Amino acid sequence: MKNIVGQTPRGKDFFIREKLIRRLYRRLDSGANLYIAAPRRMGKTAVLRYLEDKSDDAYNAVYVITEAADNSENFFKVVLHELFRSSVVGNIQRLSKKASELFDEFQERFKKLGGFGIQIEMGKSETSFYDELRNLV
To answer: Which residues, listed in sequence order, are joined to residue 118 by a DSSP beta bridge?
Structure first.
């Protein structure tokens, strides 16, 4: 580990503050939001970047700089933009697209399914924008 000035220490250069990290995860586990406040150069960004780098099955962190947002609309715009750029959402979108393609292929191959006196006819229905937005969230 080397002392880094000017850049956020990451990876092996980050000094792990185990007690603080455990405390943050406990807060996240309880469903709470995080608000980290401290004087300049105390390691706030480094801790947040550590959480981002250590994303696991339980949490996927995305680091977003919202400092320039001057109103709520711009804040949400920046957050959504960064979420869609992140690998987290990208991976989910790829999986969702693959699942959708597999389902479409299944629908094409099997127009009707039946047995035991039951018959199901497969077909596409129109989806509203509301449904699409709800599916996204």
So the answer is: 115
3-state secondary structure (DSSP) of residue 52? helix
pLDDT value at 113 more than 60: no
**C-alpha–C-alpha distance, residues 14 and 8, integer Å:** 8
pLDDT digits (tens, 9 = 90+) for 69-93: 888 888 888 888 887 787 767 666 6
CA dihedral 23, 25, 28, 32 (to 10 degrees): 10
Q: Number of C-alpha atoms within 13 angstroms, CB side, residue 27? A: 11
Burial of 48 (0-12, 13-18, 19+ CB in 10 A): middle
Residue 103 CA to residue 105 CA, distance in Å, equals: 5
CA distance 134 to 120: 26
Strand 112-115 and strand 118-121: pairing? antiparallel
How many CB atoms within 10 Å of residue 29?
10
